[in-house]
Every structure is written in C-alpha cells, then in structure tokens.
C-alpha cells in the first residue's frame, strides 16, 4: 500500500505523544533504585516501558526533524543527532536494566549495586568496566541534545514553542541531579515527558492539516502528493 509523507508525520507525532505519556507514567510511585528493587516484577515492567519509550522517541523526533529541517539548519541537525544518540543509548541501558539486571541482582548483587549507583549517582565502588563512561556519555547527549533540539525547534516556529522550550529546559535541568538527592530524579523527568507529548500533538496536528490540504488538492486537480510505498 502507499502511505503519504503526511501520514508518516502523523505517526511520528503519535509516537512522540505516547512516549511522553509513558515517560511521565513510569515516574509515578517509582521504586527505590536498589538491588532489592531490581529483582521485582515492577522493575522489569517499568524498564521495559522505558525501553519502548526510547524507541518511540527516536521515531517521534525523526518526524519532527524532517518536518522542520529546512528551518533549523546545521544546529538543528546536530541537535537531532545528539538527542537521538542520547535516546538510543538510553534504549540500550534500559534494555539492560529490564532483562539483565534482575538476573545479576541475584547472582552478583555487589556488581549490580555498583551499576545502579553509577547510573543514578555517577560513581561506583567496584569495577564495572566502561559502564560508568557509557552512563556519563548518555547523560551528556541527553542534556546537550535536548538543549539544541529544543532551541532550534523553538526558533523554527513550526511546532509548539512552549513544548520546544520545555524540552530544552527539562533536559538541561537533569544536570542538577549530580548534586540533588535521588528523590529529585522522578520529578525532573516529568517536564521532558510533557514536552514530548506537546511536540507530538503539535506534529500530528500539523500533518493532519497537510493531509487535509492534499485531499482537497486531489479533489481539485486529480494529482496526489509523493507517497512512500510500504509493503
């Protein structure tokens, strides 16, 4: 079948909105980040949801970038690639948390505790290899990518500016977790989730209007917009 580019854009908007809703939902009554929590079903469900969220974000911000790339220029591309790298690495780490740490928590609780400490406190007592660096780089891409993508999206003026600004502020605010208690981890994730919802809804509305315009053009001229063939 044939799928129009506007329909793909709508799909990206839906993906972003769902991702944002998941990101907010998993913060509610989140268990403590401990070795004991890593053996529970709640831990696996929440981290599986975060893995799905990360994949949906990648689809969503790709649709956003393609919609506005002509207005965002080089910095828009850098922001998109950096934020994508951040969420791609988040996908990998949440996948590990969901499907590997529950097992290692039982067979090697000391190592698992060090991994959790490195992921959420920035340091570990024992040797966990390159994971400390991986977690630091993930956080850096998440913060810098959110800032650049949010600012360039705001300046482009194609999608909701309040959501773009919230994305930039929300992602940068997480840098404060280096000095704040762990209890701030959950509230500081909510602004980014709300921003993803706002940007997703904005992209969906934008592409819905494009679909309506194309439908009207087809009725008037009999010509259709370019479509992507999906088999």
UniProtKB/TrEMBL annotation:
Lineage top rank: taxon: Bacteria
What are the record keywords, sorted?
Membrane, Transmembrane, Transmembrane helix
The portions of this protein that span the membrane are: 12-28, 48-66, 78-101, 128-150, 162-180, 186-204
Q: What is this protein called?
A: DUF4386 family protein
This protein's species is Pedococcus ginsenosidimutans
């Amino acid at each position: 079948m044939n799928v129009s580019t506007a329909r793909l854009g709508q799909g990206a908007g839906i993906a972003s909105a769902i991702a944002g809703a998941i990101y907010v939902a998993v913060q509610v009554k989140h268990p403590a980040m401990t070795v004991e929590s890593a053996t529970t079903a709640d831990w696996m469900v929440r981290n599986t949801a975060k893995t799905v969220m990360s994949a949906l974000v990648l689809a969503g911000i790709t649709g956003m970038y393609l919609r506005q790339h002509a207005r965002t220029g080089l910095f828009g591309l850098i922001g998109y690639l950096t934020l994508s790298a951040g969420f791609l690495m988040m996908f990998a780490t949440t996948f590990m948390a969901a499907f590997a740490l529950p097992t290692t928590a039982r067979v090697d609780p000391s190592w698992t505790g060090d991994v959790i400490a490195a992921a959420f406190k920035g340091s570990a007592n024992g040797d966990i290899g390159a994971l400390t660096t991986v977690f630091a780089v993930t956080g850096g891409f998440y913060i810098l990518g959110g800032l650049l993508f949010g600012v360039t999206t705001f300046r482009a003026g194609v999608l909701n500016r309040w959501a773009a600004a919230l994305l930039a502020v929300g992602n940068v605010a997480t840098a404060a977790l280096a000095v704040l208690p762990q209890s701030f981890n959950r509230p500081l994730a909510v602004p980014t989730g709300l921003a993803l919802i706002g940007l997703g809804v904005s992209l969906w509305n934008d592409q819905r209007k494009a679909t309506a315009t194309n439908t009207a053009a087809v009725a008037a001229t009999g010509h259709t917009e370019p479509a992507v063939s999906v088999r």
